[in-house]
Amino acid sequence: MFIAAPELTSYPNIHHAFFTRQGGVSEGIYASLNGGLGSSDDPAKVAENRRRMAEEMGVAPEALVSIHQTHSADAVIVEGPWAGERPKADGMATNVQGVALAITTADCGPVLFADPHASVIGAAHAGWRGAATGILEATIEAMESLGARREKIVAVLGPTISQAAYEVGPDFVARFTDMDPANRRFFEPGERPDHAMFDLPGFIGSRLQAAGIGEFANLGLCTYSDEERFYSYRRTTHCGEPDYGRLISAITLTARTFIP
After folding, report:
1. At what angle are helices 200-210 and 135-144 packed, to 10 degrees?
2. Distance separating alpha carbons of residues 232 and 226, to the nearest angstrom
3. What is the side-by-side strand order in the sheet with 196-198?
4. Low-confidence spans in the chain with pLDDT less than 70
5. Domain with 99 in it
């Protein structure tokens, strides 16, 4: 039902999960653990899927907190379940127990953060646009505002589209190389003329390492190539399907104490 990262499981005050698409009640193209509030799936089935994930995280269903993701560089502080509409943002941070920060993805990079020493956690939705414009750094800064120290932060990248499956056109390449000529290292020649294969996980990792965090890990799992376990927007597009499910990656603080 979910995948755990060794880099985070060693801390008793942190519980996290990179949920797969398995273990839910949705059917058809959404089978089966679709957590996407913005999908066209049956809302009752999405609610049941999210209830199951909240139960695994040890929080109430309404405390599996999501944001309205817009590929922005905006991060918000979470103090509890939202009282009204979800804020538009792509990163979250909290130091409150009893809430789980939940990011939805279907090829973009889900990044879970923790400073176990300060009991501060974060989560970010990092597509190419958000990663390029600063969502990872904004999430770290939000965590720092709650007492985290970046040199103590551990960040893990969950299932993300791999370079082998991510072909882009010349305009995309030019955008990145104009931003920084060193970004050329994230591209390899594609099969089509003037096209290239983009290394989104590598780009995310480079941004996090440049930000000066203590540890970065990449699970090395490709959403596109593993249809049994993961949803993929790009795979859905190539198959001509009308919609797609969303994976949930979540992190929460437990009542247990971290002793350095």
Report:
1. 40
2. 9
3. 167-168, 196-198, 187-189
4. none
5. 2-160+216-253
Q: What CATH code is carried by the domain that includes residue 53?
A: 3.60.140.10
Instruction: Work out the burial of residue 85: count CB atoms within 10 Å of its CB; fewer than 13 is exposed, 13-18 middle, 19 or more buried.
Output: exposed
Identify whether 207 is part of a domain: no
The token pair that represents 126 in the structure block: 């990092």
The pLDDT assigned to 257 comes to 80
Phi, psi (deg, nearest 5) at residue 111 = -115, 125
Q: What's the whole-model pTM score?
A: 0.98
Residue 61 burial (10 A CB sphere; 0-12, 13-18, 19+): middle
Return the CA Rg of the chain: 18
Structure tokens at 47: 């609610």
50-65 tens-digit pLDDT? 999 999 999 999 999 9
The verdict on residue 155 lying in a domain is yes
Total domains in the chain come to: 1
Kindly list the distances between the CA atom of residue 20 and the CA atoms of 15, 185, 203, in Å, as whole numbers in the listed order: 16, 30, 23
Q: What is the pLDDT of residue 259?
A: 73
Give domain status of residue 63, yes or no.
yes
- Greatest alpha-carbon span in the chain: 55
What are the pLDDT digits (tens) for 143-167? 999 999 999 999 999 999 999 999 9
CA distance 210 to 204: 10
Asked if the structure places residue 232 within a domain, the reply is yes
